[in-house]
Amino acid sequence: MLIAPDPNMQKNQILHRSAHAVDITLTTAGHTVRTIDLGRFSPVLTRLEMAAYVTDQPLIDEQTTEYAQAVLNCDALVVVYATTMSTLPPALKGWLDRVLVPGVSFTLDGSGGTKRGLAGLDWIIGIAVYTDTWLATKRTYDNGRRILLRNLRLCARPGTRTKWLPLYSATTADEDRTATFISRVERQMSKL
Amino acid sequence: MTALVVLAHPRPESFVFAVFESALRGLRQGGDTPEIADLYADEYRPGSALSATHRSALDRTSTLVLVYPTWWTSQPAILLGWLYAATTEGLGSVKSLVCVTTHGGPRKGNLVAGQSGRHTAARTVRAACAPGASFHWVAHYGTDKDRQDRRVAFLHRVERELALLAS
Description:
The complex is a heterodimer of chains A (192) and B (167). By secondary structure, chain A is an alpha/beta fold. Chain A has 7 helices and 7 strands, in the order E-H-E-H-H-E-H-E-E-E-H-H-E-H.
């Protein structure tokens, strides 16, 4: 499963080349790739969804229900995004808010605790493009990475593997650096 | 200069809304006349620019108060979108940034998960404010398994801390 960047908010060639490389490499290896285009997704959790969040049926929208089913059925979640304000872009964060609700990413155990919900995930892979340098990114805590590799990882089974593929200082990346990065993405995808 | 209180929660009957009202009470007790940006009521959409009302309120404010529920250890998407637009356009008048937030899980669990929302506000959003701007974190943890008395105590705490900030 591939979550691709929103073309309206992130006119970023490196992101689109990365997403394309993921798609082609996985498809060529015989995997079925489901791509989610965040440009067609409203990131705002609605009043009705908030009311439904604490019920047995938290998914009340056809699109989010279908995405949730796709997440539960997939083996690998590959997220491609451009870091915005040191964290996930609003479109991607909204996707987490609206799709990964109770019953999908976690279940309530009846005593107020939670159980992991994403038991079928073998891989969580983040492909992140940064305008900042490595040092500046670390100074602002790289919050998108924290959400995906810590918070989301805690919703998957203990054996789920993670991989982070970052491209720092992307605005100054020339064709050589970009091509090297895309090759790295392809190599990682071919390992799945 | 007045405070601008930004609310990012869709339900007026929620605990976060009660927290929002406590924040307003506290600011008024401290002598402030806070302005409000209710992102859901004002139908803000992430990806769009700030409305003229929000922009002019931001230009007048020295204290920016964000009231929101923490989801996935971070701000809701509607608030992230608003903050992105606000930081892009400029937050130069803001000398004090305050986050008032609730967490479903316990404090320890949020520390393990990374506290992304806190870092985004304290580092990235504050960096767009006036030089030397202060940062205040007023957080409630464990809302999912909460007792009524703990919630009431947090509402009093919010009121007290915001009154102190405004005075």
